[in-house]
Specification:
heterodimer; A: 112 residues; mainly beta; seven-stranded mixed beta sheet; four-stranded antiparallel beta sheet; 11 strands; 0% helix; B: 108 residues; six-stranded mixed beta sheet; five-stranded antiparallel beta sheet
């Protein structure tokens, strides 16, 4: 039982490049989330999903896209990376809105 | 909009009690949470409190809730070096909103 896993753990991009971050969970959770963590700002919700095939915008969605084609996977895409997207990205999953969120180990992304 | 607010740093000596404070934004929040983040790791749920409670105790952890002032606190008794981490409070509004985190440093 791996919980929530994220791929890759680290990545360096040049401005304008694209990439996809993969999140996978094996707990059969309906809800999945992508957050970014910046110093002194806590976690901010980028996008979330309440079930397979659904996505919704969070607090800071601009510059990101997501897809939830399979229940266990939630993908976060950056189409044209910018230095402002340098951050640590966390994926999480839960059984529902009020329930405990289980977090992945994070992906550290640097955009130069 | 309003933010969930926490002080950013707290330093205590091993064996002392730590109190981490949080002010949240929405009086209708049904659950309030404390998460712990150790270096290089994701967040893990430490404890939570339902909004109709004033206090919850779980071993060395005590959560106090003052709904009138929208104030939440986490007390860690007999703080150990292994408690050094960042502690986040969070509330549920339409989604989960986190504070910026309090970095707790425990000195031997």
């Amino acid at each position: 039982n791996a919980g929530v896993t994220q791929t890759p753990k680290f990545r360096v991009l040049k401005t304008g490049q694209s990439m996809t971050l993969l999140c996978a969970q094996d707990m059969n959770h309906e809800y999945m989330y992508w957050y970014r963590q910046d110093p002194g700002m806590g976690l901010r919700l980028i996008h979330y999903s309440v079930g397979e095939g659904t996505t919704a915008k969070g607090e800071v969605p601009d510059g990101y896209n997501v897809s939830r084609l399979k229940k266990q996977n939630f993908l976060l895409g950056l189409e044209s990376a910018a230095p402002s997207q340098t951050s640590v990205y966390f994926c999480a999953s839960s059984s529902g809105t009020i329930y405990e969120q289980y977090f992945g180990p994070g992906t550290r992304l640097t955009v130069t | 909009g309003e933010d969930v607010e926490q002080s950013l740093f707290l330093s205590v000596r091993e064996g002392d009690s730590s109190v981490i404070n949080c002010t949240y934004t929405d009086s209708s929040s049904t659950y309030l949470y404390w998460y712990k983040q150790e270096p290089g790791a994701g967040l893990q749920l430490l404890t939570y409190i339902f909004s109709n409670m004033d206090m919850k105790q779980d071993q060395r952890l005590t959560v106090l809730l003052n709904k009138k002032d929208k104030h939440l606190s986490l007390r860690i008794a007999d703080t150990q070096t292994g408690d050094s981490a960042i502690y986040f409070c969070a509330e549920i509004v339409n989604d989960m909103r986190f504070g910026a985190g309090t970095r707790l440093t425990v000195k031997p």
